[in-house]
Amino acid sequence: MFIGMGASYCSSFGGSVFLQTHGHPSFTVDAGEWLNYASSVWDDASVSILLTTSGESAELVEFFRQAGDRALGLICNNPASACWQLAQNKLPILAGPEYGNATKTYTNATAASIILASEIAGLPWKQDADQAAEVFAAHLDPSSQGAVNWSYSAEALPILKFVGRGAGYGGAFMGALCIREMSGNRAAPHTGAGFKHGPNLDIDGSHVAIILALGRAAHLGVKLAQECKPSRRQSRACVERRACRHRKILFPVKDRCGCGTVEGITSQLVTQALTLAMVERTGCRLPPRFQYGVMEQ
Q1: pLDDT digits (tens, 9 = 90+) for 73-116
Q2: Last residue of some domain: 97, 121, 145?
Q3: What pLDDT band is residue 295 in, cutting at 50, 70 and 90?
Q4: Is residue 293 part of a domain?
Q5: Contact present, 233 and 209 (Cβ < 8 Å)
Q6: pLDDT tens per residue, range 179-222
Q7: For residue 288, is it within any domain?
Q8: Which of 26, 39, 69, 277 is 20 to 30 Å apart from 232, CA to CA?
């Protein structure tokens, strides 16, 4: 069981989805919901992995206080925190201080979740990590340049939808969280199937949908984008491994990673670039909140 809130909740999908894919029952749960409603089934989890950037979130601290002899692990970025002091089994994120929202800590926590899940499943992870690094090196600048132009469209439209599947849903959730925290614009995350069964019905020219087509279900993301008629949807962004032919409705950013384990990280190429472009154009409308420890560059 992977347990977190906010960006840490998003990071945990990298681990839980990886284990599900390789035959291990594993789930990501919201810390507040699990703490208040699932205590009667907590013992059924073989191990609970708690993720927290600050290590001070009240729900996560309470988990350790109520844990008793349950098997707990911690992934955390703050060795001076209450959670770190209470945890016996802990893995540092090593992201350094965070100035705005949890971008560095999200990436590092997602990577830590993937590595931990790989070790639990007894599978190698180094090659996929190297590929992910190559994808970032090759596509970070082009994604940023494209997002600057595309941010004009996003700025003009008040509502953004981020759509992802599997570990990419964590990326979609994080993308929406970053937009809301840093720019103040409305943004909401959806799974691919969840988007089809309801939210797509109210999409019109006031919306922008960013569809992350990654991993084993990449073709479903491409199909979802193709189903969107230009007359009803003004913009679509598609992150995928293959070329997009429907360029009138797609803003393609090609992710050539080819590995099915790190889409929670590579999905951030577009969402973080878009967030940065919007903030550079309109300013940061909300104050930074993740300021713990010594703030040094």
Answers
A1: 999 999 999 999 999 999 999 888 776 667 888 989 999 999 99
A2: 121
A3: very low
A4: no
A5: yes
A6: 888 887 888 999 999 988 877 776 666 677 888 888 888 889 88
A7: no
A8: 277
> Quick check: 239 pLDDT over 60?
no
Residue 39, pLDDT above cutoff 80: yes
Q: Which residues contact 267 (CB under 8 A, 6 or more apart)?
A: 164, 167, 168, 170, 171, 172, 175, 212, 214, 239
Beta bridge partners of 212: 239
Please state, in angstroms and rounded to a whole number, the distance separating the CA atoms of residues 6 and 170. Answer: 10
List, as own/partner pairs, every contact residues 103-107 make where C-beta atoms lie below 8 angstroms and the sequence separation is at least 24, other chains included.
Answer: 103/178, 103/268, 103/272, 105/7, 105/8, 105/11, 105/53, 105/77, 105/290, 106/7, 106/8, 106/10, 106/11, 106/174, 106/268, 107/265, 107/268
Same-domain check for residues 116 and 139: no
Identify whether residues 133 and 278 lie together within a single domain: yes
Whether residue 152 lies inside any domain: the answer is: yes
Single-letter amino acid code for the residue at 292: Y
**Total domains present in the chain:** 2
- Asked if 257 contacts 242 with a C-beta cutoff of 8 angstroms, the reply is no
User: CATH number, domain at 212?
Assistant: 3.40.50.10490
